[in-house]
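lol forgot to send this yesterday, sorry. struct tokens for the thing we talked abt
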């Protein structure tokens, strides 16, 4: 199944629903106190900063190293 790397996300702001652009990102993380490296795909993120914050929150024993935007062409 192909998951699109770009789309929209609906947020609520001041009681109104707003549709904003959302993208997919790959976040590279390194293991704290170890030697493992992993890449995490995060879909429907509003910005690179949001992707990094989500990855750090979901992986507390891992350090953020890099973030890259993904495109549909990356999977062709």
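and heres what i got for the seq, position by position
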């Amino acid at each position: 199944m192909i998951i699109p790397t770009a789309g929209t996300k609906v947020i609520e702001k001041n009681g109104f629903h707003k549709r904003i652009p959302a993208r997919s990102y790959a976040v590279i993380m390194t293991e704290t106190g170890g030697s493992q490296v992993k890449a995490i795909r995060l879909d429907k993120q509003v910005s690179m900063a949001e992707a990094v914050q989500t990855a750090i929150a979901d992986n507390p024993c891992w350090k953020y190293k890099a973030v890259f935007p993904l495109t549909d062409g990356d999977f062709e």
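The two ends are 13 Å apart (CA to CA). anyway ping me if u want another try
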